[in-house]
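User: Could you go from structure to sequence for me? I need the amino acid at each position, not a summary. C-alpha cells:
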C-alpha cells in the first residue's frame, strides 16, 4: 500500500513545483513593466504669519501646504477682474479636521465659516484671502499636508 502512495505523492509534488515556477515567471513579467510615475507637488511651508501667496494663472491656482496643528493658514491671491471664486481643500486623510474658516474680500468684508468647498462672489478687484483652520467644535487639531485649489471665473 505504501508503494502505491509514493508515486501519487511524487506526482503531487512535481505538479506543485511546476505550477510554482509558472506563477513566479508570471510575477516577474508583470513587474518588468515600468511603474507609472507619480509626481508630488512639493509642500510649501507658510511664513511665520501663516501666509501663502498663491499664483493664479488663467483663473486657476493650486498649492500644497504643510500645516502644523492649530496653525491658521492664509492663502492670498489677486482677483484681477474675476467675479466668482471656487476653492477646494484636499488632504490624504479624509477625516482631517480642516476647513475654510473665513474669506476676506478686497473691500474688507469677511464671511465664514465654510466647509472644504467654497463658492463665493467677489464684489471688486483686489487681494482675496482664504483662512484655513480646524473646526474648533468638531475634532482634534490637525497637522499634515493639504492641497488648496482655487478657480476664478468672470
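Assistant: Here is the amino acid at each position, in order:
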Amino acid at each position: 500500500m505504501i508503494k502505491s502512495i509514493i508515486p501519487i505523492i511524487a506526482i503531487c509534488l512535481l505538479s506543485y513545483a511546476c505550477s510554482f515556477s509558472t506563477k513566479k515567471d508570471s510575477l516577474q513579467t508583470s513587474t518588468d513593466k515600468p511603474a507609472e510615475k507619480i509626481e508630488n507637488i512639493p509642500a510649501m511651508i507658510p511664513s511665520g504669519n501663516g501666509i501663502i501667496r498663491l499664483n493664479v494663472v488663467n483663473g486657476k491656482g493650486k498649492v500644497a501646504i504643510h500645516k502644523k496643528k492649530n496653525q491658521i493658514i492664509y492663502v492670498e491671491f489677486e482677483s484681477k477682474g474675476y467675479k466668482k471664486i471656487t476653492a477646494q481643500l484636499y488632504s490624504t486623510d479624509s477625516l482631517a479636521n480642516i476647513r475654510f474658516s473665513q474669506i476676506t474680500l478686497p473691500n474688507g468684508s469677511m464671511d465664514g465659516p465654510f466647509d472644504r468647498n467654497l463658492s463665493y462672489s467677489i464684489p471688486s478687484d483686489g487681494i482675496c484671502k482664504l483662512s484655513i483652520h480646524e473646526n474648533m467644535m468638531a475634532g482634534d487639531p490637525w497637522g499634515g499636508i493639504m492641497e488648496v485649489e482655487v478657480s476664478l471665473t468672470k
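One structural detail worth keeping in mind: Confidence is low (pLDDT under 50) at residues 20-39.
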